Amino acid sequence: MACRTSFLKAILIILNVLLSLIGVTLIALSVYELNSSTPGTFEHIAIVVQIFVGTFVVLTSFLGCFASARVSLGLVWSYVICLLILLCLQIYIIAAAHSTDYVKRSKKDFLAIWADPRANKERISLIEQKYSCCGELGYHDYILMGRGIPSNCYKLFLRHAEFLFTEGCLQAVQAHATDNVVIGLIIKWMLLVVEFAALGAATHLGITVRNKLRRERF
């Protein structure tokens, strides 16, 4: 019994360390994306949700480590409840991620910004520097509008031909969204697998501790 409890404790601690690392990675990536996302867009909202989930994952992993170290029945079951909540949230997020066309959403958001380039000058500038792109389809968009190519269409804002961004921002934004979807799904599925493993180990530990306490009473 003691060996089984020690084994489950070790497994839980390892799983919770993994959970915390994945959670911190999710938060770090989300914060990085948040700084360059446009407030109010679908991408911005999704990033905020990811930060919330990542924070909840980290806090839950801390609870799991503490519960494992103390072998407290109350803490273990509290941890199990948190994992169940997290799993439900995670399953919903994965289902939403698979059913949502993030590339189409990113295209729609960008076109809405590009519809009024003068009013959204700063936001377009941020996008062009972030994705190393220029205009909607290319730098010639500015020429067609009768405007000069802005400095934000150049690397480091240096107006030299070799530093000019030739790719259009519409394509760049969609490519970035595609990459984000792939990376996001990998992290989400990893989280789900680790959470299920932690739930199984925690439940087993809780049952083991409960049975031990019952035997001690009688």
From TrEMBL:
Protein's cellular compartments: Membrane
GO cellular component, one term: plasma membrane
Keywords: Membrane, Transmembrane, Transmembrane helix
Pfam families per UniProt: Tetraspanin (PF00335)
Chain ranges passing through the membrane: 7-32, 44-69, 76-97, 186-207
Primary location group: membrane
InterPro entries membership: Tetraspanin/Peripherin, Tetraspanin_EC2_sf
Topology versus the membrane: Multi-pass membrane protein
Record keyword Transmembrane present: yes
Annotated PANTHER family: FI23944P1-RELATED, TETRASPANIN
UniProt protein name: Protein late bloomer
